Amino acid sequence: MTVVEASPGLTRAERISVLNPVGYEPEVNPKPLAPRLDTLDGKTIFLVDCRFDDSAKLLEQIRLWLAEHLPSVSAQLVQLGGVYAKDDPQLWTRIKAEGHAAILGVGH
Questions:
Q1: Which residues are CB-neighbours of 49 under 8 A, at least 6 positions away?
Q2: What's the domain count of the chain?
Q3: In the 8-state DSSP scheme, what is residue 103?
Q4: What is the pTM of this model?
Q5: pLDDT for 52-98, tens place per residue?
Q6: Please, are residues 75 and 100 in contact by the beta-carbon 8 Å criterion?
Q7: Of 91, 95, 84, nearest in space to 56 by CA
Q8: Does any domain span residue 51?
């Protein structure tokens, strides 16, 4: 915390405290994107609800759009096993085994 004085000689009651909102970002280790599919025709796409605000609503709209415009695509709406901040290795294993691609819904 940084204390800033408007003028020297102020009493403690006359001082204001100013918090510095600048933080230090954590180191980010980027990963490459998955390779693009040549086509979605006949593929299974998992729509993953990460249980973040309203992501299920967005993914349901995507599922409906795919059903209308790309009926040969199987779009499966699934949820993470816990909250969005926790990993779900079982779901990732299922998606790798049964799917061709995944769209993660993170809400907003």
A1: 55, 56, 59, 77, 78, 79, 80, 105
A2: 1
A3: E
A4: 0.70
A5: 888 899 999 999 999 999 999 999 999 998 887 889 999 999 999 99
A6: no
A7: 84
A8: yes
Domain residue limits at 93: 44-105
Place of tokens 């609800």: 49
- Examine residue 12 and state whether it is found in any structural domain, yes or no: no
Rounded Cα distance between 102 and 59, Å, is: 11
Going from the C-alpha of 28 to that of each of 5, 19, 23, 25, 44, the distances in angstroms are 37, 26, 15, 8, 31
Q: 74-95 burial string, b = 16+ CB within 10 Å, else e?
A: bbebbbbeeebeeebeebeeeb
Please report whether residue 95 resides in a domain. Answer: yes
- Matching residue, tokens 């759009």: 65
Are the C-beta atoms of residues 102 and 75 closer than 8 Å to each other?
no
